[in-house]
Every structure is written in C-alpha cells, then in structure tokens.
Amino acid sequence: MTRTRATDLNTGLDDFLAWAEKERGAPLPVRVADAVLTLLALRGADRRAGVPEPTPQLLRRVLHEDLPPLLCATPAELAAVPGVLTALADRVRAAGRLNAKRHMRLVAAIDDAVPEFRRAIADPRNLTWPAWYASLLRAAGVDSDDPAAVREWLAAHERAPRADRPVLPAPLHRSDVAARTFATRVQLTDALLAAFAHDVEGPSPTGPLLPSPPLDADRPEEALGEELERIAGALIDRWTAAGLSDALAGPYAALAPAPDALPHVALADRLLDEHLDYYGDSGTPLPPPPVLPAPEDIRGLLQGAPLPAALAARSDDGRELAERCGFPGPADDVWATGTPQELTELGADILAAVVERIAAAPGEDEESAREAHEDAGDAREARDAHEAAEDADYAEDYALDAAHLLYSLYERGGTADSVARKAAEQGSWQVDPSLEDAPVPVPDTAPADYVTPSPDELSALLGIPGLGEEDRAELDGPARSLSAVVDQLAETGCVFRAGDSYGLTALGNAVLRHVLAAGQVAAPDEETVAAWDAAEVITAVQNWPPRTAARTLAQWTAGHGGGSWSDLLNALDIAKRTDFPGIRTSTLFAYLDLAAVPAEALRSAVPNPTIGAYAHRLLLTRGEAAPSDAERVPPSARAVLILEELDARWIEDLRTYARVLTEEEEPDLAALPSAIPGAFDAAASTWPGGAASLVPALAEAHPPTSVRVLEQLGSGHPDSRVAALASRTAKAAKAKSAGAGGA
Fold first, then answer.
1. Strand, coil or helix: what is 38?
2. What stretches in the chain show pLDDT beneath 70?
3. Where is the segment annotated Disordered (predicted)?
4. How many CB atoms are located within 10 Å of the residue 484 CB?
5. 58: which residues sit within 8 A by CB, 6+ positions away?
6. Would you call 498 helix, strand, or coil by DSSP?
7. How far apart are CA 100 and CA 111, in angstroms?
8. Do 599 and 624 touch, CB atoms closer than 8 A?
9. What are the φ and ψ backbone dihedral angles of 261, each rounded to 5 degrees?
10. Fewer Cβ neighbours under 10 Å: the N or C end of the chain?
11. 3 state DSSP class of 504
12. Sign of dihedral through CA atoms 583, 584, 590, 595?
C-alpha cells in the first residue's frame, strides 16, 4: 500500500475508495472514509483485509466516542456515514474475512449504532475548537481545504468586533470547549503512540500503520513525540479544516484557549469538589442568587473593582497576577470591548488567580514568623513571634480554604455570613446548627479594620450562651485571619465585607455562577427555577437555606396559579414514596410553613397516606386544624412521621457517641443514654394498640429506615417484651429490605 502524504496512515484508504466507487458506481466522501478507517485502525482493528476490519464493539466506540469530537462534516457527509461503514463491511467480506452470517450481524450493528452517533455528533459537549471554527468557515463559504483561505478567515474573525462574532451553542462556555479539545488531542496522541508501539512489537502483515518516525535524531524520544503531535495535527486538519491546528496553536491561539490559559478552570474543579463533598452529585442544584446584574452592567461592575482596574492599568504590584489573567494580551481587548459573557469570564479568571495567590502566600508568612520566633532574643520578642506564628497558621488554614469560602457563600443563596461565626465553625466550636445558615445584617457603615464582635454579640451569632472575653480573645486570631482573606477576595469586586458581615456582590454572583457552570455544577438562575415542575422544586429546595427555600417556594407558586401549592404537596408525596430516606419531610414542611402555604392546601393533604400527618401537625401548630382533621389522618401517615422522628433521635445518639469519643480517652458508650426509647414510648402512648401495634407499623412505613431504629429499641428499651418484639421485627425488616434491594 502506498502513502501519498508523509502523515498518511497505512489504512488502505485509496484502494478502498477506488473499490467502493467501482462497486457502487458513486464515490464515497473522502473525509468521512478517512476518519472512519483511521480511527478503527487506531482502535486496533485487524488490517489483514487491506483495510481496518470493523467489529460491532469497535464500531460503537469509534462512532460514539472517537468520531464526534474529531469530525466536522457537512450534512451530506454525515448522512453518508452509514454507507461508508456498510461499504467497509462489504469490502472485508469481499476479501474473504467475513462469512455471510458475521457480515449480516455487522451490518445490523451499523444500523443500531448510527442513531447514537447522530445524537453524539450533535451534542455540544463534544465540540472542540477545530470543529467549531471549521463549522464557522463552512458557514461563511470558505474553502476549508485551502490553508491560506482558512488563515485569511481567522484573521478577519479576530479583527471582527467581539459582539459580532458567533457565540458558542448553549450551554457551552469557552472552558468546556477548551477541556474537550485538550482531552480529544491527548486521546488521539495516546492512540498514535500505542499504534507506534504495536508497529514496533508486532506489525500487521500489511505493514506498519504509522509512517517511519525519525528515530535517528539526536533525541529520538523528543523526535517521536513531535512526530506524533505533527501527525495528530494533520489528521485533525483533514477532518476539520486545512492548517487549522497550527493556526490555533500559534498566531490565533487567543481564539482557542487551552485550559491552562483560563485560570478559572482550576477554581471550577475546586468548586466541583466542594459540591461533591456536600451533595455527592454535581446535578444537585444550588439555590439561585437573588440578585444577578443585568448584562449591560457587568462592564461597569468589573471595571469599577479595585484589583481588575489595577491589573488593566499595568500596576507594578500585580504584574505576575496580570500576566496570569492575560494582561497584556487577550484580556486587554476583552476589557475594552468584550461582551458581558467575556467580561464575566475575565472576572472569573481574576477571582481564580487571587484564590491561587492567597493559597501560595501563607507558607512564606509562616516561615518568616517561625524564623522570627527562633531568633527572638528575649521573652517578649519570643512571645510576639509565637503569636505571629500562630496567626500565620490561622492564615494558612483560611488561605487554603478560600475556594470553600466562595462556595459556601454561593450555597447560602446570596445571604451574608459572619466572619466570626465562620471562623468558629472552622475551629470546631459547637455552633448552633440552626444558626449556621442564618443571614447576618449588613451595616450601612463599618470601620475598614476588622473588629471581632463583643462576647454578647458572639453568643447571639453562635448560639452559645455566656461567652466571655477569653472566648472572644480565643476567636480573635482566626477571625482576623479570615477577614484578611475576605478582604483580598473583596478587591476583585466579587465579595464585600462590612464589619463582621461578608458576602457575594452582584458581580460575585454572576462570576461564581459562571465558574460553577464551568465545573458542571447545577447553578440555575431564578428564571430557570421558575420553569421547573413541582417535583424539581420540592426536591431541590430541601438542600437550601430556610429563607432561600421559602422565598423560592413562594415565588414558584405565585407564578404557577392557585393550585400550585397542592401540586407541590403531591410532588412531595411522590418523592417521599420514591426516595424515602432522601426526602427530609420535616424540613420541607418547615419551609412550606415559612412560605405561608395556605391552610386549604394543607387540609387537602391530610388524608395522604405518606405526608398526611405532617400536614395535620402543621395545621395544629398554626391553630388552623378543624376538629375532624385528626380522624382523617391515615395510620400509615402517622407511622411515617413517628418513624422519621425516631430516626432523627438515632442520628442525635450517633452525634453524641461521636462527641464523647473525641472528648474522652476511655468512653463507656454502653452507658450513654439513648433518646429513642423515651420518644417511642411517648408515641406508643397515643397509638391504637400501644407498643405492640406501633412496632410493626414502623417497619411497614419503610423497612430499611426502621431497621436501625428497631435495633436500638431491641437493645435499649427497658421493657423486655418491647425489646424482643423490636428485635424480631428488625430482623424481618432487614430481610425484606435485602429482598427489595434496600429501596
């Protein structure tokens, strides 16, 4: 087989195209045939038929994984993909490498794989920079096989006003395309390296797949790498547009940034890690910010912030940071004429670069503080140096956690937090859980220097009565260190601090939302949430701070008509039956109460077999229950409520055990009291049939959840009869759960 170009692979392309045209009477599209044969060969397809021989498995991998990000084809070329594959199957059969049965099976596999290929090729998440620009070239009528025409178009595109340039398809950001481009190039180069190794160790009888590399060079390993990169670029050009790889890697690199040219990509990864630590799923949505700036306001907000303005003005103090963010360079043009999305991305890059700088700085401060401690000549100097070293320790803790601070602010739903309270949480103080998400008032004026709140103010902030000056002094160092980090973040215009309160600005909401989206974290805006159905709303808000959740519920129902409260309650019922442990019913009813759910909607939910007892309890609490409502609550709904309350006691017991384990050297866990027996007895006192009837009712409500509650009753209830019944029922519930897959 002959090669016509130094970068051609030995795939039998020319012979195959000639054979197919002779057999079919019409030529096959060269671009598609080249890509299909090359990718099959790089996947390790046997080439003894003179062409790469497809198998159903190889076919699926090439069509669904390899081809979509690498090929930019016209609609006619894409429509020809099944024909190219069928012709390839026919060619392998003609070479005697497929019998009739295997040929028929392969053709059927082609038919099965094509619909998913069409979906994948249209999926914007598979878009790469070469494919994007190749599509724009073709749309503009440029000859994509003419390198000079390609470069001429790129030059004109770069000169065009940013607002006039085509935008990436939603929901893509430049970071998405950069990441996909990088991953695709690495995958292609790795496949070429594997093919080279196969050529060396056991080449096909038809000859090596790759051209001979320049192994006689002075540095053969470097020469091999360069040659493989050159081949990868040539292949991408053949499947997109001629000369595009070198152009986008060289003079037009600003049009196709790599991930390392976008500082906010690293911050996006960090925020994704934070989100997964909290929720375990990137698709679990964060609350929408209450305030997002209008697109036309982004420029003024960014250019009015101290640090971005200094970077754009070439301040000597921030030269390294400026270079990291693209000043001088592509950021200058964005600063002057960028679109709102580009300016938001620039703000994200600046914020991310500051987070990087904060994390890198404390180590130096700590080292210098410790050196001062060692060199101190008298007791006073030694004490001061020791305190400086402790402050450096605090600073490092918070510096490394700057990304967490940003995530936690966004996760609060736009409400301000307290520096002192955050420092206390970080220092493992026993902050009242009900206050952790409580918003903090923002004063109209406050001194620039941070001052730790008074003991009385700290007691109110932390929910810890009786704090004194010693407690305040203990918290002062961590709080001041945290405030210093907050103040550095505030220079970006994304964060504010007023006294002890701090939070995200409108610009910060927009920038953080952009970064979260780059990390594939669900970060909807209020418009998106308003378009959700009742099930999406009710499952999302349970993870949000109370006031944010209540505001969202009220806004959603206001926009969906009078029956929307009942829609929410019905959705809550379905969600609870579908995912019993995943739906925090008590929390959601508390949020519904905050949102002022009408009594009529609650009363209609009272007969519900899952949530009816919760609806009735809320009516009672608000003084809106009718005398007959209690009789309408199904026993199953009462059992659900009691089971969840007992399960909450089980979690309280677990926390108590964990605290005792950390506080005592030799704890006697067996002697620790459990809250479950007393709560069970209180519930059994009003249950028809008492404890003997309540135990099986709990198991019936949800067997998997009941197991740990019943096991605790079995080991800790003072009445041996109740304990024995609970133990037997727990065993049966465990067996039932195992049979049902633990659902």
1. helix
2. 1-7, 213-218, 362-400, 669-670, 739-743
3. 361-390
4. 18
5. 40, 43, 44, 45
6. strand
7. 17
8. yes
9. -90, 0
10. C
11. strand
12. negative
DSSP state of 65: I
The Cα 687–Cα 638 span in angstroms is 9
The answer to whether 500 and 419 have CB atoms below 8 angstroms apart is yes
Residue 18 tokens, joined:
């000639």
Q: Please, what's the b/e burial string for 557-575 (b: 16 or more CB within 10 A of its CB; e: otherwise)?
A: beebeeebbbbbbbbbbeb
Identify the CA nearest to 605 among candidates 731, 118, 597: 597
Cβ pair 305, 493 in contact under 8 A = yes
Residue spans of alpha helices (H) in 280-305 = 298-303
HSE at residue 217, side-chain half, CA atoms within 13 A, is 13
Q: Where are the alpha helices (DSSP H) in 491-563?
A: 506-518, 526-530, 534-541, 546-558
Q: For residue 287, is it left (φ>0), alpha (ψ between -120 and 50) or beta?
A: beta
Q: Is the peptide bond before 213 cis (omega within 30 degrees of 0)?
A: no
Q: What is the pLDDT of residue 4?
A: 47
Single-letter amino acid code for the residue at 13: L
Buried (b) or exposed (e) across 89-100, using 16+ Cβ within 10 A?
Answer: bbbbbeeebbee
Q: Which two tokens stand for residue 87?
A: 């012709």
- Residue 635, pLDDT score: 97
Do the beta carbons of residue 618 and residue 591 sit within 8 Å? Answer: no
Structure tokens at 539: 């499952």
Angle subtended at Cα 113 by Cα 110 and Cα 116, rounded to the nearest 5 degrees = 150
Residue 66 is classified by DSSP as I
Distance (Å, whole) CA 573 – CA 612: 9
Q: Please report the sign of the dihedral spanned by the C-alpha atoms of residue 320, residue 326, residue 329, residue 334.
A: negative
Distance of CA 681 to the CA centre of its chain: 44
Q: What is the pLDDT of residue 236?
A: 97
Q: Tokens in use for 113? A: 């794989």
Q: Quick count: other Cβ atoms within 10 Å of Cβ 174?
A: 21
Can you give the pLDDT at residue 368?
Answer: 41
Phi and psi at 545, nearest 5°, equal -60, 150
Q: How far is CA 347 from CA 58, 298, 331, 351, 535, in A?
A: 44, 9, 10, 6, 35
Contact of 31 with 13, CB cutoff 8 Å: no
| Cα gap 726→145, rounded to integer Å | 77
What is the enclosing helix (H) or strand (E) of 417?
strand 417-418
Alpha carbons 1 and 21: distance in angstroms, whole number: 18
Give the separation between CA 289 and CA 75, rounded to whole angstroms: 41
What are the Cα distances from residue 614, in Å, to 154, 218, 590? 63, 78, 10
At 171-201, the pLDDT tens digits run: 899 999 999 999 999 999 999 999 999 998 8
Which tokens is 700 given?
Answer: 């019936």
What's the distance, Cα to Cα, between the start and end of the chain in Å?
60
Distance CA(420)–CA(401), nearest Å, equals 15
Question: Dihedral (C-alpha) 366, 370, 375, 378: value to the nearest 10 degrees?
Answer: 110
Please report, for the chain, how many H helices and E strands are present, in that order.
Answer: 37, 3
The two most distant CA atoms of the chain are separated, in Å, by 97
| Beta partners for residue 503, in sequence order | 496
The token duo for 457 is 């103010």
What whole-number distance in Å separates Cα of residue 234 and Cα of residue 677? 73
Give the tokens for residue 581.
């442990």
CA angle in degrees (0–180, nearest 5) for 607-610-614:
75
Q: What is the pLDDT of residues 714-724, one digit of tens each?
A: 999 999 999 99
Q: Which two tokens stand for residue 101?
A: 């049965």
Q: How far apart are CA 398 and CA 401, in angstroms?
A: 5
Distance of CA 71 to the CA centre of its chain: 28
Bridge pairing between strands 495-498 and 417-418: unpaired
